[in-house]
Amino acid sequence: MAQIDDLPPLREVIATHSLDARKSLGQNFLLDLNLTSRIARAAAPLDDCTILEIGPGPGGLTRALLAAGAKRVIAIEKDTRCLPALSEISSYYDGRLEVIEGDALKIDPVALAGGDKIKIVANLPYNVGTQLLLNWITTEDWPPFWTSLTLMFQKEVGERIVAQPGSKAYGRLAVLAGWRTTGGMLFDLNPKAFTPPPKVTSTVVQLMPREKPFACSRKMLEKVTAAAFGQRRKMLRASLKSLGGPADDLIEAAGLTPTARAEEIDVEGFVRLANCYAER
Ligand code: SAM
């Protein structure tokens, strides 16, 4: 197998530090160095910004990022058992790695970068991955604190993020992602690439911030998408009744057809709907 640095192989790191994977922390470690390097290359260039990694675990992806030339990596890890292994990586790479112990959901990423541009790269824990993504794509400030997101998800979640109207996977997540970002799925990873292997295929998604996002309030967009996709098989005229007031007027003001269903409406359609709803 390929070698990317002179640190011990990941299997040895896991054995030395007794890092048996814990389901409660969404731990599926990626040990295939060809794949960790491929993810790092997908996020390149890495030398002009700070990389924020969530959940480095034993440090496979972290090492790939550093070996590929990352100027600085800040990694947030909740599992304290991983800290000694990560500290060895930090010493080997001359302190280019800074590890923060804690819950990524509770740490303000903007404060960490100290004004530097940030790229987020992570093999996300499946139990908090979607919430973290939503936090990053719905930040108040735009352009956001990050310039790209290169993230691994379960494939089914990746499909829901990049889904287009008319598909089964198209829903609230795709509308929120499409509102603020552009991007797509880069490549899949077989469960066998992980220890322990998850039940499903994973995929790497890359998203870039839209330079000119469609203007609307996040709160309103969330309200209209929740109502529309909450009853996705119903026509808008029925599903949007829960918003109160005459649904047909609202739908027509947004230039949409009351008999259409949520999955037929593109992101711009939902943005218009959110803006008309806000004006009510
Ligand atoms: N990056 C490693 C790799 O690719 O092999 C590990 C990925 S594993 C899927 C997810 C990692 O996220 C684990 O190391 C886990 O301990 C960590 N984690 C889980 N929940 C977290 C949270 N809320 N904040 C920070 N790290 C978390």
TrEMBL record:
Keyword Amino-acid biosynthesis: no
Coiled-coil annotated spans: none
Entry annotated with the keyword Plastid: no
Annotated Pfam families: RrnaAD
EC number annotated for this UniProt entry: 2.1.1.182
UniProt cross-references to SUPFAM superfamilies, sorted A to Z: S-adenosyl-L-methionine-dependent methyltransferases
InterPro entries documented for this protein: KsgA/Erm, rRNA_Ade_diMease-like_C, rRNA_Ade_Mease_Trfase_CS, rRNA_Ade_methylase_Trfase_N, rRNA_adenine_dimethylase, SAM-dependent_MTases_sf
Chain ranges of the Ribosomal RNA adenine methylase transferase N-terminal domain: 35-211
Domain of life (superkingdom): Bacteria
Entry-linked CDD domains: AdoMet_MTases
Localization per record: Cytoplasm
Keywords recorded for this protein, A-Z: Cytoplasm, Methyltransferase, RNA-binding, rRNA processing, S-adenosyl-L-methionine, Transferase
Molecular-function GO terms, alphabetical: 16S rRNA (adenine(1518)-N(6)/adenine(1519)-N(6))-dimethyltransferase activity
Catalytic activity, reaction form: adenosine(1518)/adenosine(1519) in 16S rRNA + 4 S-adenosyl-L-methionine = N(6)-dimethyladenosine(1518)/N(6)-dimethyladenosine(1519) in 16S rRNA + 4 S-adenosyl-L-homocysteine + 4 H(+)
Binding-site list for S-adenosyl-L-methionine: N28, L30, G55, E77, D103, N123
Family, per entry: Belongs to the class I-like SAM-binding methyltransferase superfamily. rRNA adenine N(6)-methyltransferase family. RsmA subfamily.
Role, per record: Specifically dimethylates two adjacent adenosines (A1518 and A1519) in the loop of a conserved hairpin near the 3'-end of 16S rRNA in the 30S particle. May play a critical role in biogenesis of 30S subunits.
Protein name stated in the entry: Ribosomal RNA small subunit methyltransferase A
